[in-house]
Specification:
Blueprint lengths: L4 H13 L5 H15 L7 H12 L3 H9 L8 H16 L16 H4 L3 H53 L1
Helix pairs in contact: 2-3, 2-4, 2-7, 3-4, 5-7
């Protein structure tokens, strides 16, 4: 039986909000996960996110959720990769210029897997992904912090009212 993607996202958000950790640790885990989730380091994203989350003392589950959250934007990943490449190419070129127009006629798998491709394509892609991931991960941190703190205030509000009523009776 297939589940609705929106229902799956809601369930993941519920699980994230119910983690037994500080709001800062959860938000930091999400920020770290989002940072690595937007990078082109296929195969290493989750490991790097978990390692950095561990070093920073943030929540590991939130980091894993943040890394996989980019799957929601899977249809626009080619566009995102192109933007990352253009930003990295512009930053690394001297004088600054945008990359030449992309022609897929010359793209063969043997060329993609050659080590020199990392220097010509991989380096600008990696630099651009980090430049774009920094502000997105910072925004993710603050949005997650706000949502988790708000959710916990709402949870403790009715409980505090019940405790107050029980003490007055």
């Amino acid at each position: 039986m297939k589940t609705n993607p929106i229902t799956g996202l809601r369930e993941q958000a519920r699980r994230l909000l119910s983690l037994k950790d500080t709001p800062h640790a959860i938000a930091m885990g999400m920020g770290v996960g989002m940072f690595f989730g937007l990078s082109p380091l296929w195969g290493l994203k989750t490991l790097l996110a978990l390692a950095l989350a561990r070093l920073l003392g943030s929540n590991l589950i939130a980091a894993a959720v943040g890394v996989t959250l980019h799957d929601v934007i899977l249809p626009v990943v080619p566009l995102l990769l192109r933007w990352e490449y253009e930003v990295g190419y512009w930053l690394l070129s001297n004088p600054h210029q945008l990359p030449p127009r992309l022609h897929l006629v010359h793209a063969r798998p043997s060329v993609w897997l050659h080590w020199s491709t990392f220097l010509t394509v991989g380096r600008p892609l990696l630099v651009g992904s980090f430049i774009l991931a920094i502000p997105i991960s910072i925004m993710t941190y603050y949005i997650t912090l706000f949502v988790v703190e708000r959710r916990r205030r709402k949870r403790t509000s009715p409980q505090a009212a019940k405790d107050s009523a029980a003490n007055n009776a």
